[in-house]
Amino acid sequence: MILDGREVSEKIRENIKKEVEYYLQRGYRKPSLAVILVGDDPPSLVYVGNKRKACEKVGIKSLFYHLPYNTKLEELLELIAELNAREDVDGILVQLPLPPHIPMQEVILAISPRKDVDGFHPENMGRLLGRLEGGFIPCTPLGIDLLLKHYQIDLKGKDVVIVGAGFIVGRPLSALMLWRDATVSVCHIHTKDIKKYTTQADVLISATGVPHLIRGDMVKEGAIVIDVGITKVGNKILGDVCFEEVKEKASAITPVPGGVGPMTVTALLLNTLQAYKKNVN
Ligand code: GUN
To answer: Where's the Tetrahydrofolate dehydrogenase/cyclohydrolase NAD(P)-binding domain (predicted)?
Structure first.
């Protein structure tokens, strides 16, 4: 079975659009998301474009702040403070990675947790670890959770193996999978024998950005395989998973593109709607 992130996204986005229309018909302002991009990293330009288009399609206003590469930390913090104070801005997203002269953690700390639709602020990450409802869950983990829920894949007691322990996906995803009562293992660059873990996984999720890291012989028969990787190699987009080999063994698998990618953007729309509803209600 193919886990079709495009199709599931479309359904969820239709509901978001209807919910936004409900508010607009009652005279409320539009929801709005401020997107900040520092520099011209080509993949980031594509991601930011996709996010903004998706916002407009469901009736969320997107404000775009495209700052030059040499922007100073202080200038970025000033913009964030301004956006934090604006009542007509519900969400603030600073696209990562930032140029190396800008410390990411200082930027994330500056965003109001109430507007942190990426869910990266320690208050929101802490809520995720503490299983406290009401915070923002980072978009890719939330998107994966929604995709699994759509296909009625219950994680309770399942062996979930996550390959990749990054800040944006692997670490928050491990907390979310624990919240769903899975038994979670996280492999990373220092793991001695990744295959020892991956071959045991009921649900295998790879988020490394290493194209075709996961081969057929690393996957258990009948496993569910989620591919978070999106790497441009030449003019091709490759996932972390060697799809042709792994599809023969997996009971369900996400394609790249059209799997996790659209779900991440959908989760961002949901988080923005959540921020908006708190502001207008
Ligand atoms: N770069 C890659 N993924 C993400 C994400 O989910 N949010 C932000 N802000 N930057 C990213």
So the answer is: 138-279
